[in-house]
Specification:
Elements: H1 21-52, H2 72-78, H3 86-117, H4 123-134, H5 142-151, H6 158-182, H7 187-194, H8 199-210, H9 212-227, H10 231-236, H11 244-249, H12 261-281, H13 283-291
Amino acid sequence: MTAAPATASAAPSPKVEAYQPSHFWANTRTYLGVALIVIWGLAPAVWMVITSFRPADATFETTLWPTNPTLENYRAAFSTDGGNNLPRALLNSLFISTTVTAIGLLFGVFAAYALARLNFRFKPILVGFILGASMFPLVALVTPLFQLFTNIGWMGTYQALIIPNISFVLPLTIYTLTAFFTEMPWDLEEAARIDGCTQGQAFRKIILPLAAPGLFTTAILAFIAAWNEFLIASQLSSATTQPVTVAIASFTGSIPRQEPYTTLMAAGTIVTVPLLIMVLLFQKRIVSGLTAGGVKG
């Protein structure tokens, strides 16, 4: 009696994908595009830093590294002998931006929560007004604000710089946080309400901790927007309250009618590099804040 030969099923051989040149060229185009964007965005900042280390008589050199690097431009930027006062302007900008960010977040978080959580009449119209306020041209507000603050005696004061900045930062804050709150898992809030929490307690103990990444991201964006504001500050500030954007624009050189380019580049580096460092240090939190709201529970 002969046994039937066992027929072992041959294992299917793994498919070897054919090399597709189109994938290679697609990846190449992607990397080239990213490289061009990075160069286009960083080249002016890199050139500013390089020029800040050049001597004044070598301002227009085209070398990729200063031939005789010097720190004299940074000493001149911080010097107050020529009427410039960069240290005070830095403190003014820090105070104005911090105050604007804190007040903008305080009002923005409640407004965004109401827009995301509550249903009421004319809600789409209100959202449209908020978006419209963010797109309103600042130059159209200079004359009315100048007249208003002159009439009430606020010209050249900190409140004349803080209040307009709050109105500019609030739409950004509300829009960003509304999108974040809309995608949050509201089941946790409802569970807290069932356990006996009031709506305020649920908001404070449940929603705010979950919204920390979004709040952190919004705070950074609001701070940068307030720090970089120039148009309104150039018209409403005084010598004692002007921020760094206005102070740098009014820098004077040691020679009359001479534009101190190297000193300006040093001051620009002093103002810009801390913001870049802050964004690089907290980039993970920024990304998590922009994407955390997309996860539903």
